[in-house]
């Protein structure tokens, strides 16, 4: 990469191996269901997550919204965290696409309180109430937090007791699995559907995969068509997705780099890193330095070949990924040390 890009793990480029696989991928017409590379990607994703079937979709937002549409009926209510990606970063699409009501609960760095989830479920058949149609969880969360297996299991048990499906926004599911040191299917078992992103730390150029039961995926395939997500010779992209699945095994390297980055960053006077929140590949920090100008720092870093976002209410975030090596981290640290001297 030309720049050292710390803005997100969404900025990753396809690796050279991915590009070669894309160039030689067998393709067909995926709407007809005869693109063999897509079929292989879907089967492999379902196998890894312990589900019956899977469906390739254009993006993570598409995967979440498709799942909500497939699980629910208009006027249903869905339960989810107030800081979840679906609420905070999907442009209100759940209201437009599925016509459902959202019931948001406080989430402790992404974890929902099972007691609050149970209280939020609409019980009985009172004509004044919407029906609870879905519970949505997210791990790893956009705050970098990873929900515990115990937390996910508790919510799953509540959902089953009331015959409500659970959707998992698992955009960074493999990061969560790496942090917990478990197979991804151990997390996925607590959800009826999962949306898994291939284009973040896994380096694929585009795409997500939705997994679930055969019945759910058959219905989702029809809804994908309705939403304009039916794709043709998309095996070219699925080939990159297959390589991305293999790249899940190296995510611990990004996590270790994030820990190193955060610990060294914390040593720079004026920078305070939330070290206890470094669980995956994200570092959150604040800057308290007399005369500090955020816009000046962002511009200075760009002049030195480093891309970073401004703060979110005073909190900055750096994200490590395949192209943020230990050597590049040291370069960034040196530039920051000099800047804050």
TrEMBL record:
<comment type="similarity">
    <text>Belongs to the threonine aldolase family.</text>
</comment>
<protein>
    <submittedName>
        <fullName>L-threonine aldolase</fullName>
    </submittedName>
</protein>
<feature type="domain" description="Aromatic amino acid beta-eliminating lyase/threonine aldolase">
    <location>
        <begin position="5"/>
        <end position="285"/>
    </location>
</feature>
<dbReference type="InterPro" id="IPR015422">
    <property type="entry name" value="PyrdxlP-dep_Trfase_small"/>
</dbReference>
<dbReference type="Pfam" id="PF01212">
    <property type="entry name" value="Beta_elim_lyase"/>
</dbReference>
<keyword id="KW-0456">Lyase</keyword>
<feature type="modified residue" description="N6-(pyridoxal phosphate)lysine">
    <location>
        <position position="200"/>
    </location>
</feature>
<dbReference type="InterPro" id="IPR023603">
    <property type="entry name" value="Low_specificity_L-TA-like"/>
</dbReference>
<dbReference type="GO" id="GO:0008732">
    <property type="term" value="F:L-allo-threonine aldolase activity"/>
</dbReference>
<dbReference type="InterPro" id="IPR015421">
    <property type="entry name" value="PyrdxlP-dep_Trfase_major"/>
</dbReference>
<dbReference type="InterPro" id="IPR015424">
    <property type="entry name" value="PyrdxlP-dep_Trfase"/>
</dbReference>
<dbReference type="GO" id="GO:0006567">
    <property type="term" value="P:L-threonine catabolic process"/>
</dbReference>
<dbReference type="GO" id="GO:0006545">
    <property type="term" value="P:glycine biosynthetic process"/>
</dbReference>
<keyword id="KW-0663">Pyridoxal phosphate</keyword>
<dbReference type="InterPro" id="IPR001597">
    <property type="entry name" value="ArAA_b-elim_lyase/Thr_aldolase"/>
</dbReference>
<dbReference type="GO" id="GO:0005829">
    <property type="term" value="C:cytosol"/>
</dbReference>
């Amino acid at each position: 990469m030309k720049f050292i890009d710390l803005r997100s793990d969404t900025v990753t480029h396809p690796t050279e191996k991915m590009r070669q696989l894309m160039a030689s991928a067998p393709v067909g017409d995926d709407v007809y269901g005869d693109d063999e590379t897509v079929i292989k990607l879907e089967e492999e994703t379902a196998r890894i997550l312990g589900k019956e079937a899977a469906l390739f979709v254009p993006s993570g937002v598409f995967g979440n919204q498709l799942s909500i549409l497939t699980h629910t009926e208009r006027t249903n209510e869905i339960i989810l965290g107030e800081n979840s990606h679906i609420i905070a970063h999907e442009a209100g699409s759940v209201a437009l696409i599925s016509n459902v009501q959202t019931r948001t609960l406080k989430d402790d760095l992404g974890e929902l309180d099972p007691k609050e989830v149970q209280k939020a479920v609409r019980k009985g058949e009172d004509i004044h109430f919407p029906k609870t149609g879905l519970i949505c969880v997210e791990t790893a969360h956009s705050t970098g937090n990873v929900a515990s297996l115990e937390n996910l299991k508790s919510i799953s048990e509540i959902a089953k007791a009331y015959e409500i499906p659970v959707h998992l926004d698992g955009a960074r599911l493999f990061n969560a699995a790496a942090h917990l040191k478990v197979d991804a299917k151990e997390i996925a078992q607590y959800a009826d559907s999962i949306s898994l992103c291939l284009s973040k730390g896994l380096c694929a150029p585009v795409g997500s995969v939705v997994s679930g039961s055969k019945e759910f995926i058959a219905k989702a395939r029809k809804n994908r068509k309705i939403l304009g997500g039916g794709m043709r010779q998309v095996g070219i992209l699925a080939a990159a997705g297959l390589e991305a699945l293999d790249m899940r095994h190296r995510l611990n390297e990004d996590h270790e780099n994030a820990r190193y980055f955060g610990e060294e960053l914390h040593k720079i006077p004026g920078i305070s890193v939330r070290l206890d929140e470094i669980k995956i590949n994200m570092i959150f920090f604040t800057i308290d330095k007399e005369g500090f100008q955020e816009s000046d720092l962002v511009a200075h870093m760009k002049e030195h070949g480093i891309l970073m976002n401004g703060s979110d209410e005073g909190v900055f975030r750096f994200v490590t990924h395949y192209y943020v090596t230990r050597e590049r981290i040291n370069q960034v640290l040196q530039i920051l040390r000099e800047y804050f001297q």
